[in-house]
């Protein structure tokens, strides 16, 4: 293989330069840029390599041709959580007369090349990614295409260059644990989201910091990573609450997961909040309606989504962002599912065997 | 005003015919067809009138130019209900490599002309309307544009010509009331959705039919129309349960609304199901997780959405539908929120004044 020629001036290459260098037609380079699939994989890889080395970027004049759409892509559609995000995005796009193209990655953490190719074909104003991230090479691809992107509630540590809107998860974990410690609880469990998702780890770190502040040791057995679904809360909840030294309080990874924890308590004949305090996360509208109404950490999902959408539309207009990383404030909302620790509710009396198993379906 | 010339053969007019007749350029007629806004309203109205009188239709050859997108439009994004619909649509579109453009009408029952104009500009494969409907003139507009449409869970009686997927709401109401009557309840309330929405009335009709079957009279005071939100269930629930002759069972318009009813019961110190049986509607995933787990009518939302999407894609390919109106089956799912009527739980003992008001936020 020959050594590729040095790059004269990054960003100055035209499609013709790339075509010349790779030894293909201008049409072929265009096809690669437009996400067309009728290019041999080997050719495509060579074109991509050259585009990347030259830091090729579409000329700004091409931007006029873009549609009035943004892509909103979820790691996975999920419960009422996703609706809050969609509502936040829509509140901004409706006013800007921009349409939302909705998709999900079916649980994958990064979009596939195929998905990106359809995006290049459509040329949206921008891409909004929720709870997923772009691999560095994918980021560069989108930059070459001059398609801006913003990440909402990233699932991983992204470079400071990636515009990101999140919320202060560490603070959320801190507030939840402080509240329970102030109520006198000393054996507090946490069931977070997946361990490989950044926000899960940040919340657990905040939870630990509150314990450190209070001089209370965290029992490693009471720190769990699950997922944000109700069954995960139920599974971990049953396991935790069946322990002879069961926790007197559980901090859940989501409101939905907290519903699974509360169901576990009912299944074991434990009353929330008398025998067990439960704190959720998100503050979905339903948190006020379940019984007992859920004490939870408010994550301003609609605001996060709205802020990210405004950033994306600013970028699409060619504006510079004042700041590329915004974390909105989390706060604790105290309702009915938490109560002071009381003697007798703790682990000492929990092994009395008077647990009643509710009928389940 | 002159009398417009008679139409030679419906559907045979070309853009040139229309332009000639109205006395405008072909470009102007094109602009109206493409939803462009740079046409004077008066001119536009005349063009529309002529298009409609000639029953103008785009030539099929234009269809090749359409995008690989469908429009999914909700009356309003709402809770986890909308996510079930979105999941059902996405399961079909993902396989067909079709994108979803998502919008909502902000509570309006029919799309605005402005919304339709953006659709004409984009030329999607088709339009899927959820819990809303197209006015007859709008239906004809879309037909002229050769953009097919399908309605999911229509909010009004549509002509048999409009492809519609729903579920058997009458049967749902019948099953819920039969279940409660079989449990021995005699004072059963129903809180349905809005009275002007077809499915609400169908469910109440089914509820009445079950009473007729059983020879039990429906107290008109116990038949309520609200909306599908939790607060509506809470408001009507509190009002019903504070009556001296309070119902011993309530059939709610949605699972979300049922959560509001159950909260009303808790606020008044009534236990579900001991003092009050509650039946929901929809069978959202959360119905299994709330306490007590909700007895509810399963409305196969994902299947409904998937079936409607397949119909729409068939129409977009120019296929004829075997049937234009499909109602999927509803069924009762019995969980924990319903129990046999027991002496003492009824109205006679309910005015004892021992109601306790829970603290609320």
From TrEMBL, chains A, B:
Region (Disordered): 339-361
PROSITE patterns: HTH_LACI_2
Coiled coil: none
Keyword Endoplasmic reticulum: no
Alphabetical keyword list: DNA-binding, Transcription, Transcription regulation
Residue ranges of domain HTH lacI-type in the record: 13-67
PANTHER family linked: LACI-RELATED TRANSCRIPTIONAL REPRESSOR, LACTOSE OPERON REPRESSOR
Full protein name: Transcriptional regulator
Organism the protein comes from: Phytohabitans houttuyneae
């Amino acid at each position: 293989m020959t050594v590729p020629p040095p790059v004269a001036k990054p960003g100055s290459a035209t499609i013709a330069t790339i075509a010349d260098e790779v030894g293909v037609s201008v049409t072929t380079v265009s096809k690669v840029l437009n996400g067309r699939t009728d290019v041999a994989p080997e050719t495509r890889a060579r074109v991509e390599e050259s585009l990347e080395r030259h830091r090729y970027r579409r000329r700004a004049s091409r931007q006029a041709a873009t549609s009035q759409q943004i892509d909103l892509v979820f790691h996975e559609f999920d419960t009422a959580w996703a609706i809050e995000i969609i509502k936040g995005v829509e509140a901004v796009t409706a006013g800007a007369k921009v349409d939302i193209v909705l998709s999900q990655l079916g649980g994958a953490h990064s979009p596939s090349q195929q998905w990106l190719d359809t995006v290049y074909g459509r040329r949206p104003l921008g891409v909004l990614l929720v709870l997923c991230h772009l691999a560095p090479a994918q980021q560069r691809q989108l930059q070459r295409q001059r398609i801006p992107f913003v990440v909402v509630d990233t699932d991983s540590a992204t470079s400071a260059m990636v515009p990101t809107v999140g919320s202060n998860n560490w603070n959320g974990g801190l507030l939840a644990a402080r509240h329970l410690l102030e109520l006198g609880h000393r054996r507090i469990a946490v069931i977070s989201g997946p361990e490989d998702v950044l926000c899960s780890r940040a919340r657990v770190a905040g939870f630990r910091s509150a314990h450190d502040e209070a001089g209370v040791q965290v029992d490693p057995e009471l720190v769990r990573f699950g997922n944000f679904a109700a069954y995960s809360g139920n599974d971990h909840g049953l396991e935790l609450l069946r322990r002879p030294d069961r926790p007197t309080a559980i901090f859940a990874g989501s409101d939905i997961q907290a519903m699974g924890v509360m169901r576990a308590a009912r299944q074991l004949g434990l009353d929330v909040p008398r025998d067990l305090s439960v704190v959720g996360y998100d503050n979905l509208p339903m948190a006020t309606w379940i019984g007992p109404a859920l004490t939870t950490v408010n994550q301003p999902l609609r605001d996060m989504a709205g802020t990210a959408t405004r950033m994306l539309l600013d970028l699409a207009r060619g504006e510079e962002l004042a700041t590329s990383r915004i974390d909105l404030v989390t706060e604790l909302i105290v309702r009915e599912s938490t109560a002071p620790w009381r003697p007798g509710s703790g682990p000492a009396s929990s092994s009395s065997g008077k647990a009643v198993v509710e009928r389940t379906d």
